[in-house]
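Re: Re: ligand-bound prediction request (bumping)

Still looking for help on this. To restate: I need the protein modeled with adenosine-5'-triphosphate bound, output as structure tokens. Inputs repeated here so nobody has to scroll up.
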Amino acid sequence: MNSKDIRTQFLNFFKEKNHKIVPSAPMVIKDDPTLMFTNAGMNQFKEFFLGNSVVKNKRVSDTQKCLRVSGKHNDLEEVGKDTYHHTMFEMLGNWSFGDYFKTEAIAWAWELLTDILKIDKDSLYVSVFEGSDDADKLGMDTEAYDLWSAIVPKDRIIMGNKKDNFWEMGDQGPCGPCSEIHVDIRSAEEKAKISGASLVNKDHPLVVEIWNLVFMQYNRKADGSLEPLPEKHVDTGMGFERLCMVLQGVQSNYDTDVFTPIIREIEAITGKDYGKKEETDIAIRVIADHIRAVAFSIADGQLPSNTGAGYVIRRILRRAIRYGFTFLNTKEPFMYRLVNVLTENMGTAFPELKEQRQLIENVVKEEEHSFLHTLEQGLVLLDNVVKQSNGKEISGRKAFELYDTYGFPIDLTGLILEEKGYTLDEKGFHEAMQEQKNRSRSASEVAKADWEILMNDSEQEFVGYDVLETKVKLVKYRKVTSKKEGEQYQVVFNLTPFYPEGGGQVGDKGYLEAPNGDVFYIVDTKKENNEIVHFAKHLPKNTSETFKAVVDKKQRQRTAANHTATHLLHQALREILGTHVEQKGSAVHSKYLRFDFSHFAKLTVEELRAVENFVNARIDGQLPLQENRNVPMEDAMKEGAMALFGEKYGDAVRTIRFGQSIELCGGTHVKNTADIWHFKIKSEGAVAAGVRRIEAITLDAVKDFYYQNNRSLFEIKDLLNNAQDPVKAVEALQAENIRLKKEVEVLLKDKAKNLKGELLSELEEVNGINFMAKKLDLDAAGIKDLSFEMGNSHNNLFLLFGTEQNGKALLSCYISKELVSEKNLNAGTIVRELGKFILGGGGGQPFFATAGGKNPAGIDEALAKAKEYLN
Ligand code: ATP
Ligand code: MG
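Reply:
Sorry for the wait, this slipped through. Here it is.
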């Protein structure tokens, strides 16, 4: 069975069991402060487990793109070294939200694996939670045990501890026992020697977990205690690549058709064979795995960058590049050449790959280029570190500096040092690393108290599209404490006019007003697990009153104008540059808007002009907002609405139309484009290969901009004595400046000539050498000219000049050629030695050299030392 059929079979099985098949959520998470990447199928359903949203489908199934490279689930260091952990993988899953529980979940998993997919029953083991005698005092999961005993022999049921068989979403929230299904794919001979049961959960590459069935029945509170959940849920996850391995009768995920085409391509590009040498094999697996993670992230809109999720992606890509560099001898970009096979292989199940192939290739190639360059630079830097070191051990802090500042990988540092016969102080490196981690961790740590529930409310309503002010009741609140924000309260209302940060748009600010007139400021609004959470510094004393919730109108209007302008800008770019333009990110603030989009070249002045004109024409056209809050996704797409890659959409969507531009959007907009007043682009530039960024302004920001410009112009005119045409006046000034410079040059030459005469008469004879050490008021070029001029008319010269220019010191040494050879004098060595007096360094040739430094006070001392060289 090929992998495509396996995926389909899984989904069909659950479809027949009345599950709704839903699309994979994006792998890159944009609106959950606790998670950067989807690391399990259940992430996109958190709101249902938490009871924040009303469940529409109680049974759901899908295949979910997951990435386990950071946070609680981090498999990165395993990947490539073993054959069954990936960074990016697909997790097949089925869910019950308050519907079926253990009985069905267990029976169906078994039916699918053994009846439908025909996995040999004798190769399967299952595990059951054994209970815990810690503070939780949980009993064994006898329910699951009894259910399994009815289908599998007792000796195939393994009792598991809390680590393996109790699943928690985080420090707080829903959790419960789980049952895992493991498969033993060793040969009959091996199986006869050692029982499979003894190898379960022992990191054996051929006895691996394939499916985890989680039974959520508790809620973990902030104080660590457990309470039963009112409704019980099922959450299962099966590793797709591992399932393929079992069904295709191979012993490594990398030998399945999910990976073999990529591996063949790596072999073709590098000329290395897979399966010959352990070191090469690991590198090939790393690359085959990482290109998937990187390609899928870029397709989801996450470009490699220097911070956050983008930095994680950059590091994954760099890990692969470095494995290639070290073990496959790839010194040129090559990973981008794998994108094509990957797309051919997975583009049907994940069309976002196909549609963005070109962009993915461009971005990967550019990253490869720049990192290979870094590697080369790093090699030079490392060489210097080695040269400057006293002993045979290189300090861990130095290595950390290379790693942290230049991105030079530590294991490569280790390897190179070893080749050169040096060792690395690894302990020091890890200490420096840990210190940095601690710093960033404590900065981002957030402590959350339990929610205080004030009233029951099934689903919160957002009324902010229509009103900016309304009467509300508080539903719940909790205190959160973080280094960054200090103490704050998160408050949920029964309904709210506050727009929560999302879709690139900032969250609303405003206030709550109590009946007695007291005011409590809302400093930000965010969405968490589909719930709108307001951030306040203080809480009202009486939380059960009815409050007036008021959104800051000015900020909202400006933000709305920028959001609508973003849509018009998007349309303008597609119209003027072409339909290859796709949104790659946006930030809609009250003061400005930022729009990232795929395009291969810098925009010309004419193009920018055309874009501005296009948008402003639509503002002048006074186009009314046409909004549809509840359209089936299919209809919206038929209408031509633009959906964004990497965004999560429901079955029903909201469409925003201004004239020809229709987009799926949850943001807030102006009622009419006339409310934008005017649109002005402030900057255009590159973000990554093939991705450009435009920053623009609207409304009062445009007025301010023109006002400032106008003011500068007036000031300039004023400085130009009220010139009628300031451009002409500036051009005249520039021309005059050039003419004056030339005049000065001539005068300086004359001055040097006179000076030369004077100086020659001051030469002193020391040991038969014509010597002079003197401070001059000339620049570097002047001193050089002068020295050579003097050299032309006198033999046996030794000149040391010092000068101070713009607060910096300069020493310059000239030695006649015959002295260099006969007396073994070297200007380069001399300035380097004397450079220490001016706190600097330099060099040059034996007959002429200069040194620069930051201490002019040391010039005299240096000059005084000069004579010593002649003895
Ligand atoms: P393991 O112990 O093998 O790391 P896990 O306990 O971390 O697995 P779960 O979190 O229960 O796994 O995830 C559910 C399923 O997803 C696993 O049974 C496995 O088949 C698959 N899976 C987990 N991590 C990975 C990974 N890094 N690469 C591929 N598949 C994975
Ligand atoms: Mg794991």
